[in-house]
C-alpha cells in the first residue's frame, strides 16, 4: 500500500466504524426511550404512541386486574365452581380490556400533552446523557426490562420488546405498578 493509500485508509476506517456504531446505537432500547422523550417534549402524541404496544399492555394489565380480583374470592371447592370461575374471568377480561385500552391511550395522550407544562404521570428524561443515566436496562431473552425512578410516580418498571423491522416498544408494565395505578384510581373515585 502506498503512503497516500495509508493516509486515506485511517479516515475511511474511522468513518465506517462511526457509521456502524451510530447504526447500532439507533437500534437499542435506550435510543427508543430517547426518541420517546423527544416526542413527548414536542407534544407529538402520534409519535409517542408508536413507542407503546397498547394492545399488549392492555392484555397484561387486564390479566393482573382479573387475577387480583379472583385472588380475593374464596377458592373453588368443586369442578363446577372452578369452571364457573374461569367463565367469570373470561367475561371480566372481555369487559375490562377495552376500558384498559382506552385508559392506556388516554394516559399516553395526557402525558404527552402535558410534558414540560405540568407534572405528568410519567416524566421521561430528555437528552442522550440523561437517558443513559436515568434508565436501568436489563436483558431478559429477546426483551428488556427497564427501570426508571420517576420523580412523581416513584419506581416504574416496564418491558420493552422489538419485532422484526420495528423499533423497541413498551409492551408491559410491572404488575406491582399496575396494581398501584388501580389502587390510586380507586382512591380518586371514592
Question: Which characteristics define this entry?
Answer:
alpha+beta, four-stranded antiparallel beta sheet
Give a brief description.
The chain is α+β, with helices and mostly antiparallel strands and 190 residues long. It is 61% helix and 14% strand.
Content-based structural category: alpha+beta
List SSEs in N-to-C order: HHHHHHEEEEH
Can you count the beta strands? 4
What amount of the residues lies in strands?
5-15%
Structural description of this entry:
With 190 residues, this protein is α+β, with helices and mostly antiparallel strands. The protein has one domain. It has 7 helices and 4 strands, in the order ααααααββββα. A 4-stranded antiparallel β-sheet has the order 1-2-3-4. A hairpin with a 7-residue loop joins β3 and β4 (169-173). The protein is elongated. Mean pLDDT is 81; it is low at 19-24 and 118-122.
Amino acid at each position: 500500500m502506498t503512503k497516500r493509500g495509508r493516509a486515506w485508509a485511517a479516515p475511511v476506517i474511522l468513518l465506517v466504524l462511526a457509521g456502524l456504531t451510530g447504526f447500532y446505537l439507533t437500534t437499542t432500547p435506550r435510543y427508543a426511550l430517547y426518541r420517546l422523550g423527544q416526542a413527548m417534549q414536542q407534544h407529538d402524541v402520534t409519535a409517542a404512541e408508536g413507542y407503546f404496544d397498547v394492545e399488549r399492555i392492555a392484555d397484561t394489565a387486564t390479566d393482573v386486574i382479573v387475577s387480583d380480583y379472583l385472588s380475593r374470592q374464596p377458592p373453588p371447592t368443586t369442578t363446577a365452581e372452578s369452571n364457573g370461575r374461569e367463565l367469570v374471568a373470561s367475561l371480566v377480561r372481555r369487559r375490562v380490556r377495552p376500558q384498559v385500552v382506552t385508559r392506556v391511550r388516554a394516559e399516553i395522550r395526557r402525558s404527552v400533552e402535558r410534558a414540560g407544562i405540568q407534572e405528568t404521570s410519567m416524566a421521561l428524561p430528555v437528552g442522550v446523557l440523561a437517558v443513559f443515566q436515568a434508565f436501568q436496562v436489563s436483558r431478559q431473552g429477546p426483551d428488556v426490562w427497564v427501570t426508571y425512578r420517576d420523580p412523581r410516580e416513584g419506581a416504574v418498571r416496564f418491558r420493552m420488546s422489538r419485532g422484526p423491522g420495528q423499533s423497541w416498544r413498551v409492551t408491559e408494565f410491572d404488575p406491582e405498578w399496575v396494581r398501584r395505578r388501580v389502587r390510586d384510581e380507586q382512591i380518586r373515585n371514592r
